[in-house]
Every structure is written in C-alpha cells, then in structure tokens.
Amino acid sequence: MSSTKDAMNKWFGNFPSKRFADDTCYLIGAFANVSVIKTDEGLVVFDLSNRIIHQKIFNKIRKFSDKQIKYIIYSHGHFDHCFGYASIVKEIEKKGWEMPQIIAHENILDRFEKYRELDRYHHWINSQQFSSIGNIPKDGVSAHDTINPTILIHGNDEYEFKLGNYSFELYHDKGETDDSLWMFFPEKKVLFAGDLMVSSYPNVGNPYKVQRYPKDWAIAMERMLEKNAEYLLPGHGRLIEGKDKVKEVLSITAEAMHFVHDEVVKRMNEGKWFEQIYHEMLDIFPEKFNHWILQPIYGCYRFAIHAVYRLYHGWYNTGNPTDLFPAKSDEIAKEFLKIASETDYINHAKKLFEEGKLQLALHILDVLINGIDSNKKELLLNTYNLKYKILKQKAKDETSFIASNIINNGALQIKDKIRNLKKSLKNNI
Ligand SMILES: [Zn+2]
C-alpha cells in the first residue's frame, strides 16, 4: 500500500522539477505537469496545472527563465491542466506585455461550456474522485473563469508553429478526452503527451466521468511512436527518458488499449452481456500488462472493460428483463427478509467475511441495510459495523486511487450512520 501511496504522490507532481534536453526544457511537477520550453524569442508553456497552485507554477517558471511567454498549449480542458494562469496574467498586465497565443483543440470550448452548465455537479463528483487529497475548493475546479484559446485546432488538423530557432508540431487524438492535443518538439525530440500518458494504466473508464476512447488511445500511442522521441513528458508523473524507454512505454500502452478494446468487442459480437464479459476479461488479463507504466494506481484495467462496453452499448446491460424496470432496492430487500430471518442474513454475512468472500458479504449486508426495520437499531448497528470493516479492508487492498476513494467515501458515510445510531441507542431514542 505504501508503494501505491508513494506512486500517487509522484503522480501528483511531488518530485523535483527537472531541466532537460540541453536546458531547453523544464518539467514542473505540479498536480498535473507543466512543461516550459525556452527559445531565443520567448517561452512555450505546455499546460498550466490547476487554479489552486497558480503562484507556485509561476514561481517555478520564473526560476527557469524570465523570458516572455509567447505560447500556451492546453493538452485538454480538464481543470488540472488549464486553470493555473492567474499569476501569469498578473505579470503580463504589470509588464504591459501582449497576451500569449493560446492553442487548444476546438472541442475544448464545448467542454468549458459543459463544465459551466454542470458546475455544481462537477464539483461534487470531483470531490469524491479526489477525496483522499483533502477538500477541493469549488473555485479550484470550476470553469467559471477561463482563458479561451486564441488558436483553435479543428478536427484532425495538424498545426505547426515556430518560435526562435525551434519548431513545434501539434496533433489531435482522442483518448482521455475528445479535445486532446499532444506536441512534438523535433529539434530536441521531446514528446509532450498530456494525459494520453499518465504513469498509470490509462484513465479510460473512470466511474464518474463520461466516455473515453481506448481504441483512439492506442492509435495516439502509435502516432507518437513514429516520432522516435528521446523524451516523453506525461501529463502526470516523472519524465520518461531514452529512446528505448519511450518506445517501450508507448508500445505497451498501445498494446493494452488494443487488447481491452478488441477482447471486449469480440465478446459483444459473441452475444455476451456485461457481467460475463467482465469476468472473462479478468480471467484473461495478460501478465505482460503488469508493466510499471500500466500499474493500476489511477485508472485500471477493470474500469477500462466498462469503458469499451459503454462506448458501444446502452444502459440495459444484463440481458435480464427483471432489470429493465426494477423495483426499489428497499422493497426487494424487505421481501428477501420475509424468506429468511435477519439473524440468518447477518450470520451468513459474517461467515462469508470470515471466509474472505468480502464482495459477497457486502451483497448480503445490503439486503439488511435496505430492508431492515429502522427501529431494530442493535441489528442495524452490527450490520453497519461489519460493512464498515469490510469496506476499510477492501480500500486497503485497492491499488487504484479512484477506486479506493469510492470505497473509502462509502465507509465514511457508514461511519456517520454508526455514530448516529450509537448516539440514539445511548439516549434511548
Ligand atoms: Zn490530468
């Protein structure tokens, strides 16, 4: 577990900033990475990280160079990549400089608009997804205030610009988002990947977020491979250096994306439903994907299976008409409790727990939680206590940051219920 925590720490930029490629480039680890490229005529900045740490990012940029920023590139429109601009703008106003050109894919505008429309909802889901790193201020993730691009890349257009002696190539591929841009700096053979490379199994199939694109992700990796780069800047995590290493991480990520996509599609074509596909996919997970670049510390293979299925399928995913218009879970649970006693259920859940069948024990406990008469406080308390214990155990064993946060959030809610129940038992309410 501690190694997963260490990995997550680094994932969120907790590593020293680094100069590389003959001191032309600078990587700033800052929740999401910020990269700076120095030319004779000014700076190019690839991503800005988030609003909360704008001052820190600015200070680090200025530690590297005091030249004027001429271009800013948004790798995609997530809050951790394009909202950290406040100190940069302040400096521009103070010095009377011109605003830099800001380059992004055209789809970013719809994304910002969507975030504004769903402002409270996004804050709510991000608070859950990132809960283990503390409270995220609403202002930190909101798109209420953005600096919009001045140069838009349309569709699959490629875009090249020059600054000083250097040239910069921009490409669009879908992957974590539909507005991704990645950049190649040919003179020094540096790839700037944004979140198409995140030092974890790709974040495809995030349980909270909209659809992502595994097949396109593989294609993006293959297009990056053609550049034969020396350096690869991930959106999160440390710099990847050396032609062979860059080639290795791009190739294995492409292979992993092709694999999960093609194997799920194959099973859909065989007329299988999600549950069967999911468990078969777990059974055939190839050993070679236990690669360090694919460690499941943020995204994970289990989520990716969902992603592929959802890409092509509607919400009716069991093939069982019972699930088409289901009754309420508490009504179903109450019926189950008429068949066997509540004591039978809790005893059975305990037995499953002792046998290490934690997931099955949770399903049984949920019958009690949903169906029990709320006056039976002692029994409810025992039920919550066991569920809390199981969730904490599962969270401890979980490698994915997102999955462990989901499980821990559930445990916290139950802890609240336990506290309230104990209070009301003590006061004999
Ligand atoms: Zn990111």
What does it look like?
A seven-stranded mixed sheet has the order 1-2-3-4-5-6-7, covered by helices on one side. A six-stranded mixed sheet has the order 8-9-10-11-12-13, covered by helices on one side. The model has no long low-confidence stretch (mean pLDDT 94). Helix 9 (243-269) packs across helix 11 (301-312) and helix 14 runs antiparallel to helix 15. It is 48% helix and 14% strand. It has helices at 2-11, 54-64, 79-82, 86-95, 107-117, 119-129, 138-141, 214-225, 243-269, 274-283, 301-312, 329-339, 342-354, 358-371, 377-397, 401-426, and strands at 18-20, 25-28, 34-39, 42-46, 69-73, 101-105, 151-153, 159-163, 166-172, 181-185, 190-194, 231-234, 240-241. It has two domains: 2-259, 4-Layer Sandwich (Metallo-beta-lactamase, Chain A); 327-426, Alkyl sulfatase, dimerisation domain (Serine Threonine Protein Phosphatase 5, Tetratricopeptide repeat). The longest helix is centred in the middle third of the chain and has 27 residues, at 243-269. With 429 residues, it is of the alpha/beta class. It starts with a helix and ends with a helix. The site of zinc ion has 7 residues, from helix 3. Residues 32, 78, 80-81, 195, 235-236 line the site of zinc ion.
